[in-house]
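Need the bound structure for NDP, inputs here:
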Amino acid sequence: MENVKCLIIGSGPAGYTAAIYAARAGLSPVLYTGPQQGGQLITTNDVENYPGYPDGRSGPEMMDDFRRQALRFETEIRNEMITKVDFTGPIHKVWSESGAEIHTPAVIIATGASAKWLGIPGEERLQNKGVSACAVCDGFFFRKKEVVIVGGGDTAAEESTYLAKICSKVHLLVRRDEMRASKIMQQRVLHTPNLEVHWNTESVEVLGEDEVTGVRVRNNQTGEEKIIDSAAFFVAIGHKPNTDIFKGWIDLDESGYILTRPGTSLTKVPGVFASGDAQDKVYRQAVTAAGTGCMAALDAERYLVEMEL
Ligand code: NDP
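Answer from helper R.:
Posting the output first, comments after.
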């Protein structure tokens, strides 16, 4: 068993930012990276919307910058996954995949979320070559081009209208004859002139050798197949927050996102703080994740002072 003053779970922008703040506050944080060191940005080619990088940066390079900044202030980083927690408190217990048992008064959750994929041919092979799960991140690379996006929820509605502002034409593939998105978002979709909704339409295959050139689609009512020429294929069918191990300990919404007290990183359990995409289903940006990682570290520091721990 090991005692740690502040434990951070996750290594995306939220986790590393929490580590930078916690380390500089003298909390000697230990950070467990989880299975994908660097989080979702690791699979992103160019990040051009993170302030402070005027020339952009590749996702992996940016996350290496975050990691090195956390190390500079003596964060201990462990390339392992946390598999079990016991938040009975006030000293929380956490177990790693190798069986290490850690006791800590302050846990910062920054486990992120994972985009859902369709699993169709071409989708994985062409990731970062036109296939993306984030229109706000990657749409700009396809400005003035024709693109396809899949989904029928608020994310697909928001991202398709976002793309319509920068792309010449947007094809939105909806698998049913109606959208799940809120009425106001649907109205926005239907009133965007360069946005065509293909109802009852499923994607069959993403086409292209070294980059996306089109998408083979099928109408699930008539069985008719056709190819839509497209420079990009955006998947917007939802995300899954990586919060399974916290079920039963802290409050989650019906989709598994962690519920925090509004305007803070506080969960319902004293000494357990949540940041990043694990608690954010709306904004989901690197910069917002980093912001909430900072909040979690400041909340943790304040909590430890108040509790004299
Ligand atoms: P949702 O789960 O709400 O919607 C997912 C959509 O993807 C559904 O329309 C679903 O179709 C479709 N889908 C799922 N699997 C497939 C598949 N295999 N092939 C084709 N289509 C598929 O996810 P969102 O990310 O849109 O939203 C998540 C939550 O975040 C919601 O609560 C939403 O309201 C919220 N949100 C709010 C925003 C805002 O307020 N500005 C912005 C973005 C999200 P079907 O309907 O047939 O099941």
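Comments: The chain has a mean pLDDT of 96. The chain has two domains: 2-115+239-306, 131-235.
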